[in-house]
Each structure stands twice: as structure tokens, then as C-alpha cells.
Amino acid sequence: MLGDDGFELGLMQAPHWTSSAYHNQLLIRFIAWGPNALILKLFGTHLCSFFLPTVAMSASFSALGYAYLRRIGYAPGAALAAGLFIASVPFEILLGTLRANDLIVAWCMAIALLTWLWPTRHRLAAGLLCGVWLWLAFYVKLWAYYVLPGMIVVALWQWKDPGLRRAALGFAISTAALHGVASIFWALKLGHAFPFLTYMPATYPAPRHTLADLFQQYPRMILEGSPFGTTLFGVLPWIVLITMTIKLVQHVWGNRTPAWDKTDLWLAAWTLSFFVFLNFWTSHFRLDQYYSPARIFRYLAPLSFPLALIAAKNLIDISHAWRDDRWTRRVMAILWVGLFSVNLVQARQATQPGRDYRQATRQALAFIQNRPSTPRVITDYWQGTFFHNVYLKQALPGISVESSPAYLSATNCEAWIQTHQSAWPKETLLITGLSDYTHYGCTTCGMRLSQFNAPLDAIWTLGAELGSLPYGPSQEPARIWIKQ
Q: Which of 65, 181, 233, 268 is the most exposed place for a label (fewest CB within 10 A)?
């Protein structure tokens, strides 16, 4: 479903630790593919093992929220309701259906956050562990450290707390030690102590006149949704804003609850700091002009868990403030059920593009498997990676998969087909309309018949129509063609 999947699959299957490979920024970010490489080594390469680590991480967020709320004194029923709420948040469900390395950075950051907040007498150890988990998150995406300004502000505000000072010392020790050892390693291997400043993911200079629109893209994704017109975060951001306001009003006028306790303060600082720096800070460590990667929704993954935890905790606190009022308790119970239901409905909408894509892919595979004598399957580059390495590798290893060169436009794919089709054997299958990948894919690349200059040659007959993919600009159905 995502553009990096094909590249990372190769790393998972056979990471090449050669001197030249260290210049590959994806290889350097070993935490992004390491868990999958281990699972593929143990269980082999198939769809389940490819998704297993990130699915497990996604599923654990609700358990993490439950465990933390129980630890700070919330009743089992309230903590369970919070865990269910976190599990039902649309963005969490959407990201759990994708093999996104951003889910790994979000998971490491969530554990770092809870380790830092966890009530314990061993605050030095908590700080040490928080530093370790943020270092791991950093080795997926650099912007894991965007939470540090918010942490520093709150830490200075509460600096009189001796436990906080011990935690800060532990964090500084583990962070300095890990980055120090890593820098020595990279200096020996690459000649650069900080390869992330040299070998970086793609970032682009943004002209000044585009910045206003650029800075609105992430807020629109959070508050409105994806370019497909589907939601991403659903009502979650609004629940956070409304419940934070209600808690403040209850405190000022009703004196029913503390306005925001220590957990609220840390969660808000962590979340706000990450968002502000992700949205506004230049990403190239150069100040000659503003640099930014493509604004992609999955980069917002580290926001989802703390936002969901804030919302769930606030709902519990508000309910607790009115626990003596029977009618209000009933209203709050209905509200919990209603919000949980809204989340599930919105999660279904958020995952619709991926489910449409998966259904078409499964239909294509079923058609191929019903024709085991098929000599060859022709696909676009990205789809061919998975047909060759995952889908058909075990089921039909005798079928050859040939794909077009990477990143060809639709018209260039048309020319490529015309050049090579005479050499393909009879009964070769050509898959069109299932091009590129679902989210933020190239909408003018791959086997898109609607963008070809002319229909396919008469040697191709329609074998199957796999249903429409309504989220793309062309909205053409995926089809399988048979060479006669």
C-alpha cells in the first residue's frame, strides 16, 4: 500500500552489509526493517510475516494505554474503556493495515513516553530507558527528537522535583552514550560521525511562495482527512480540544476537577512539540532556504497514541467529576458508546481505499491461480515486486513475473508494452489499472489504460475485470488481459 514497501522488503530478505551499503539511508535506519527481517528469517516470506511486527505493535497501543492508566490509579473498568477507545481510533486502525515504518517510530516513542511518565521510585532508570527508546525511534525517523523541546520546557517548569532531575540525568546519560558509540561506529565505517546529516531521505527546497500552503497540509490531514476524501484521525482531534476545554471550565467554575494534572501537561507538551516542529522546522539541517520532505499522512503517526490517550483520559476525568449524578452518568455512558461507534464507522471509511485495493489484488491472484499453465504475468514495477517475492513465490513458483522499469509514466509503459509484447509467450497475462500503490502513489505512472494514447493491441483479450478503484483520479477498473 505504501511506496517504501518494495524497497524495504529487499532489505528484510537480504540486507547487504557491504561498505557501499552503508551509504543507503534505508539500511542505516535498521530499526525500520530489523523486526521484519527477524520474522521473515524465522517464518519465511509471505504476507503474514511481512505484516506481523507492525500489526503486533499497532495492536499493543490499547494495552499500553490500559496499563498506564491502571498504574496511575484509574479503576479497571475505566482503564478498559480507555483501552477500547484507543483501539478504535481510525488512524491507529488505518496505520495497522499498512506496513509503515512510521508505526515502528510511533511505537518506540509511545514506550519512551510511558517509560518517562511511569510512576516509580527508580526515576534514574526510567530516564535511562526513555533515552534508549527515543534513540531507537531516532533510527527510524530523525524527527523522533522533535518532542525534546516540549520535554525541556515542562522539565524546567517542574525542575524542583528531585525525581524529575534524576530522570533527566538518566536520559542524558543513555542518549549521550548511545549516540557517542554510534558516531564512532559510523566514523569508522563511513568517515562520517553523523551520516544522517549526509545521507538523508528525500527532502526538497520549498519556494517561499508555497510555504503558506505547505504549512496547512498537516493540519488539514488531522482535521479533515486524506486526499481521497476519507478521514484519517476522525473526531479524535475535536474530542481532545473539547474535553481539554471542559476540564478547564469544570475547574474554574465548578471546582470539580484539577484543570490539567501532570500527565495532561506532559502529554500535551509531547504532542504539541512534535507537531509544531514536524510542521514548521526545516528538515535538511541547512538554513539557506526551507527544506521539507513530501507531506505524507503516515508521518503523523507519533501523534495518534498520545492524542488518543489524552482524549480517553479526559473522558474518564469528566465522567468521574459527575459520578454522583445518576442522569449524567447515563449520558456519559451513552457518549462513550457513541464515540466508540463513531470511531469504528470512521475507521471503516479510512481503510476503504486499502480494502478496495486488496480486494482487486486478491481477485487477480485467484484468476492467476486458476490458470496454473500461465507462462508469464506482466505488471508495473511496484506491483511486480510483491507478485514475484510474496504472492506467487510459493503458490505458483513456475510463473514468471515481469515488470516495467521503475517510475515509468503511463505513456512510457504503453511504449514499453508495445516494444516487448511480441516476445511474450501466448497466454501471458497483463494486469492494468492496479498500478503503483494506494496512498500518495504516482497517479500518472504504471499500467493505466485511461492514460494510454491508444487501446491495447488486438492480441490482448479481456480475461477479467476486477472491480473499480474509486480513490484514484482516473477511477478505472483493474483488469487482466490475456495474450492470444
A: 181
